[in-house]
Write a structure and sequence with these properties.
Number of strands of chain A: 14
Strand content of chain A: 25-35%
CATH topology of the largest domain in chain B: Beta Polymerase, domain 2
Largest sheet of chain B: 5 strands, mixed
Helix content of chain A: 25-40%
Structural class of chain A: alpha+beta
CATH architecture of the largest domain in chain B: 2-Layer Sandwich
Number of strands of chain B: 9
CATH class of the largest domain in chain A: Alpha Beta
Order of helices and strands of chain B: HEEHEEEEHEEHHHEHH
Number of helices of chain A: 9
CATH superfamily of the largest domain in chain A: Nucleoside diphosphate kinase-like domain
Number of domains of chain B: 2
Oligomer: heterodimer
Low-confidence stretches of chain A: none
Shape of chain B: elongated
Largest interface: A-B, 18 and 18 residues
Distance between the termini of chain B: 99 Å
Mean pLDDT of chain B: 86
CATH class of the largest domain in chain B: Alpha Beta
CATH topology of the largest domain in chain A: Alpha-Beta Plaits
């Protein structure tokens, strides 16, 4: 059987943002779903955003206007959660002109979130939905382009180098070297400032919020994520994720034998981490002082 | 011959035992190898193969090895093991056939080589595994191609012909020739391309001889004279063609 992969998204509306951690947790803990990007968005007007989001919907316009009336009163700030759906269970829904394809898995996550977190009245869930989700990949593509990512979902399909396991946002490269280095040779860029106005500072691993979190100073890492998540930090990072990784992580052990910490040699024998700060922090925390890394020019 | 053998090739090939591949031009001394040598491998999924090689490579890094990986286009990958900045060994992975200049090889021949692979039983760490090598027919065919491609520059490639005469007997000769004729062709364009090249070379040398020793002014005057002659000739041609056209239209029968 051929598994169908696709990219979907959830939008957490302004009135649902107070539940964002719980919502992301539900999405994250679903089988065959990987969060690939989280984007905070402040639209010029919520009316315009609603129009954009529902412009690819299958329901008739008059129905949508009625259905989305409650959104006009919500705060003009939303969170988009983009995800890789590695086993889409697509089925047809609706009748006549409104017949369309949906993924049952996405629908069930959406309903679970709405059941738990939509406002309740008379012991019943209201239809003031805290989240909306895509029906198909073309809607995800459209929203990404609306947010300014001109490649749309193609960006998520980027393979930086076929011989390594790397996230989509690393640009393509043809050559790399695998080298054994000491922890003291590794550096990483850490964000400073605020979500709106930030800069990068190059630090040793032991100075990062990631390492401090592992040593028990969770608040530093939590503050770091709260400030930058959805903006310059757009992967699915969380304290729980880091702690979980730290418990079970084995660097370059199967099936992650090609998941090298990726670096760039920014000075002779000094390497700046491009991917793998969390893994380097865990290795440092375990006092593993030398290990292999991948180096690109 | 002095072997290096700092890398245990059995360890690498044991780790790719579930991959679909074939070692091209298998060295009969395997797993022995000399420093700086390489091994050519045809495979369906070079990135999966490369990842398996790298997972073993990790165990050599703390011994001072460095591994450089380069993708040459979409279908070829080098995995080079360096020790003290000197090449120790190269895995050369191909997902499609390399381009040959002197012989045309059908691209899907690579599938036939992989699918018809023979196996050599080997052992690593007390476990048996199969090393995939080309069948005698494919090995001979690949060596034949290698010989054709390089014999002008590399006289040592005669060793491939020696291999073929040794391995291909009367029973396998027909099979070898059938496969050779089916998958290869002499590039037809070679002769015409050669002629084209010759005619260009001829034209270039004649122009050079005409212009040799002349100043820029003289060259410009020559070009202008040439253009003038060309204009005169074109004018005469147009006049002639116009006259014949008018003549033909007056000769035609009038209608209506």
């Amino acid at each position: 059987m051929v598994r169908k992969e696709r990219y979907d998204y959830f939008i957490i509306w302004g009135h649902g943002l107070k539940y964002k951690d719980a919502i992301i947790d539900i999405i994250r803990n679903t089988e065959n779903i990987t969060i690939v990007r989280i984007v905070k968005h402040k639209p010029k007007s919520i009316r315009h955003l609603v129009k954009v989001v529902y412009s690819y919907d299958y329901a008739p316009l008059y129905h949508l206007e009625e259905k989305t009336k409650y959104l006009m009163k919500t705060a003009p700030e939303v969170l988009f959660v983009f995800l890789h759906n590695t086993d889409a269970c697509e089925i047809y829904r609706g009748k006549g002109d409104f017949r369309h394809i949906e993924c049952e898995r996405i629908k069930s996550i959406k309903e679970e979130i709405r059941d738990k977190l939509n406002e309740q009245k008379d012991d019943r869930r209201t239809e003031d939905h805290v989240v909306h989700a895509s029906d198909n990949e073309s809607q995800t593509d459209y929203i990404l382009k609306y947010l300014g990512f001109k490649d749309g979902v193609v960006r998520f399909k980027n393979v930086a180098n076929p011989n390594l396991s790397l996230p989509y946002y690393i640009p393509k490269f043809d050559k790399f070297t695998i080298r054994f280095v000491n922890l003291s040779q590794l550096y990483c860029n850490i964000l400073r400032g605020t979500n709106e106005s930030f800069w990068k500072e190059t630090l040793e691993i032991e100075e990062t919020p990631h390492f401090k979190c592992l040593t028990g100073n969770i608040a530093v890492y939590e503050e770091y994520l709260n400030e930058f998540m959805g903006g310059p930090l757009n992967c699915d990072y969380s304290v729980e994720n880091l702690m979980e990784l730290s418990k079970h992580f084995g660097y370059l052990e199967p099936p992650y034998t090609a998941s090298y910490i990726l670096t760039h040699e920014f000075k002779p024998n000094q390497y700046l981490i491009l991917d793998g700060v969390h893994r380097a922090a865990i290795l440092a925390f375990r006092t593993i002082n030398s290990f292999p890394i991948a180096v690109i020019k | 011959m002095k072997y290096s053998n700092r890398l245990d090739l059995d360890k690498f090939f044991f780790n790719v035992k579930d991959q679909v591949y074939v070692i091209v031009k298998n060295n009969e001394d395997f797993p022995n190898y000399c420093k700086g040598s390489d091994i050519d491998i045809f495979c369906y999924d070079s990135s999966a193969f490369a990842k398996r090689i790298l997972s073993i490579a990790n165990s050599y890094l703390d011994k001072g090895f460095e591994v450089k990986v380069s993708n040459k286009g979409a279908s070829q990958t080098y995995i080079d093991f360096f020790l003290n900045d000197e090449l120790e060994f190269r895995f050369d992975l191909y997902e499609s056939l390399p381009q040959y200049k002197k012989i045309h090889l059908k691209p899907h021949y690579i599938l036939s080589v992989i699918e018809n692979a023979a196996t050599v039983e080997r052992e690593f760490d007390g476990s048996r595994y199969s090393l995939r090598i080309p069948s005698i027919i494919d090995e001979s065919l690949l060596r034949y191609i290698e010989y054709i491609e390089w014999y002008e520059l590399r006289p040592d490639k005669i060793k491939h012909l020696d291999y073929i005469t040794e391995k291909i007997d009367d029973n396998t000769k027909a099979q070898f020739l059938n496969k050779l004729h089916f998958y290869t062709a002499l590039p037809e364009f070679l002769e015409s391309a050669h002629e084209d090249k010759l005619s260009w070379e001829k034209a270039e040398s004649s122009i050079y001889l005409k212009l040799k020793g002349k100043s820029l002014l003289e060259i410009c005057i020559a070009i202008l004279r040439r253009l003038k002659r060309l204009c005169k000739r074109s004018y005469r041609f147009i006049r002639k063609a116009g006259a014949s056209f008018i003549g033909s239209s007056t000769d035609s029968p009038k209608t209506g």
